[in-house]
Amino acid sequence: MTATIEPEVGKSRRRKEDERLITGRTRWTDNIALPGMLHLAVLRSPLAHAKIVSIDTSAAKEAAGVVAVYTAADLDPEGAIGMPCAWPITPDMAAPRRPVLASDRVNFAGEGVAVVVARSASEAHDALETIEVEYEDLPPVLDLEAALAEDAPLVHEELGSNKNALWVFDSAEAGTGGNVEEALSSSEIVLKRRFRQQRLVPAFMEPRACVVDPTGAQLTMWSATQVPHILRVMSALTLGIPEHKLRVIAPDVGGGFGGKIGVLPEEMMAVLVANKLGTPVKWNESRSETMLAAHHGRDQIQDITISAKADGTVTGLKVELLANLGAYNGLVGPGVPILGAFMFNAIYKIPAYHFACTNVFTTTTLTDAYRGAGRPEATFAIERIMDELADELGMDPVELREKNWIRHEEFPFTTVCGLTYDSGNYEAATEKAKELFGYDALRREQQQRREANDPVQLGIGISTFTEMCGLAPSRVLGSLDYGAGGWEYASLRILPTGKVEVTTGASAHGQGHETAWSQIVADQLGVSFDDVEVLHGDTQSSHKGLDTYGSRSLVVGGIAIVKAAEKVVAKAKPIAAHLLECSEDDLEFSGGKFTVKGTDSSTTIQDIALAVFAAHNLPDGVEPSLDSDATFDPENFSFPHGTHLCAAEVDTETGQVKLRSYVCVDDVGKVVNPLIVEGQVHGGLAQGIAQALFEEAVHDESGTLTTGTFADYLLPSAADLPSFTTARTETPSTTNPLGAKGVGEAGTIASTPAVVNAVVDAVRQFGVNDIEMPLTPMRVWNAVRGGAVNAGGPGGEAGGGLGSIDASGGAQ
């Protein structure tokens, strides 16, 4: 056996996973079939808010193939089971019980009221049609501001209010900055804008699914989840199952984007039904059920006030949010806007900052994490209002950003929120992006089109961003009342033949962990890339972990692997010294070999693995094992950053938007696999651009979702998107040994404001300073024709900022 010579980290390798994932020759939750397995179908409320007067299941029980029909009274007669929320953001946060099945009332269209168990999925769904439910209508609660009025109808009458919680951060009170009100009252320029983050659906490829087998010594659950370890813990706590008697497996999962981070009523329902009947059961939702009942993302009203000196120096930022939680608290839903609280200041040296978020219950599907989780919302608001400030001052938007951003020589830099950014170079990323984009030439073309009154106007959008990646460290999360830690676990098993098995607590759903982890281990131990096998997603083989979300896999889980590999080398060193008959101090390890300094006497890690297996000639007191594990809890977040530039052509006669070019330069620290990074960036860009131009979950006045299929909820295809020009700069993270930063959410975070800024820039000369997302042709056309700041509002055909400009020094 020979050691790997060429470094694996930094190499563009095709993913090990792709052969089975692309061909479908793998195991998804839905293709699991167990002997005697029954199928579940859930009857869902067509009404957003109503009392349940009666449920008649008699006909369904007699339907062909039906084994049982259950309501809440059957599965939870004491009304004691409620879905968990792991993030109570304040001590007084309202926490209404979310039941497995609704019993006395429904609080959103799509909430389950009964479940049919049948011998086939088709028979279960057919029987749903025979269940008769009598409802008594209650008034829906849909508008965020109206929901907080004293006389508003209540989603949960027992709470006495639709307010979930108020969470506030103030830099003056925290001792991290100045007083915002003083900054606003004393500054020469004060701008206020209102931005709307529309509701989105995490449109993953594979709908949610769950299989439960109660027949073994352990109860086994297969689930299309991002969080098998968290699901195991929360299921045990929710249902009272001894944790060691529950095994959770996430097989290959077809995408998540945060949409599979929850602990679902349907998963708990499947466990309850399986235990009742003593037989395996499967639940698999249809695409329309996904749209209706899987959690949604975003949905905020953002009131943003920024103050500045006449030369463009920002002096203060005030953020007031209304966040729509839907009908219940999700697993981390209440905390999603709070993640954004630390990112509204972005890359800027803002001396005074105030953030206040009011979470609100409405009779809509609950919201929870969606790719970026709070950080895209924050980046959108600050990058939009920076463009507005540049326009007010008559400055180039890039020039204004440069005047206020943290310069590379100022790192590490402690922000107005108290976070310490360890490294970055915003100047280098921006300069490279401008060069690739042809910024100056496009500005000249834009001016020519304006002077010629060209019906197709050109707009240029800028978005600079940073984000907090690697949802950790545990102490910080604890200070925010998050219900779990931020550490991650990994173990390395060194087999007798020198092959390596890696178990990781990170649970992939398309990110390429098996490939990237193999590259890391290959370099750390000097073994071949092909000699590494990565095991994940099964709480039996990988018994410990905190799973995958928040761009944490590499910068937390990957570092746990590095730490475990270091322990392997440390265990191997005394054995190598014994075999080579030298002192440990005389050994050096490189490329998979221990070599006696100054000689050619050496032994490989594979040779040592075989010697350990035989255990014939080991030093006294040394155990015959190289296997090692590690749990890594970082001291800080990682902070990737970048500059995104978008050129958009807007047909003022039709409102049609065409993205002419898109350039992004991201700094994600050291890159393990450039090909995977490119894929993550491209996918993120598609989702962020989709929010800007295409996607919106819409409820009608009764609370019915009117965008419940892909015929109504518009997803872009490749034909709707431009070819992206991507590049990177590199400032390694100083907080982990790989120097890596997160990349999974970068494209989504940065692209939405870049696109909206470009479109607004194209039509600003018509008096438009905002258009509500998504920027459909009708909304753009109406905005141009109206020439209005306010061309509509939530639910209207065009939207805009509702604030006003005050250049006289007074806050509004």
Automatic annotation (TrEMBL):
Domain Aldehyde oxidase/xanthine dehydrogenase a/b hammerhead: 23-139
Entry-linked InterPro entries: Ald_Oxase/Xan_DH_a/b (IPR000674), Ald_Oxase/Xan_DH_a/b_sf (IPR036856), Ald_Oxase/xanthine_DH-like (IPR016208), AldOxase/xan_DH_MoCoBD1 (IPR008274), AldOxase/xan_DH_MoCoBD2 (IPR046867), AldOxase/xan_DH_Mopterin-bd_sf (IPR037165)
Keywords: Molybdenum, Oxidoreductase
SMART domains: Ald_Xan_dh_C
Gene3D superfamilies: Aldehyde oxidase/xanthine dehydrogenase, a/b hammerhead (3.90.1170.50), Aldehyde oxidase/xanthine dehydrogenase, molybdopterin binding domain (3.30.365.10)
PANTHER family, A to Z: ALDEHYDE OXIDASE 1-RELATED, XANTHINE DEHYDROGENASE
Name of this chain's protein: Molybdopterin-dependent oxidoreductase
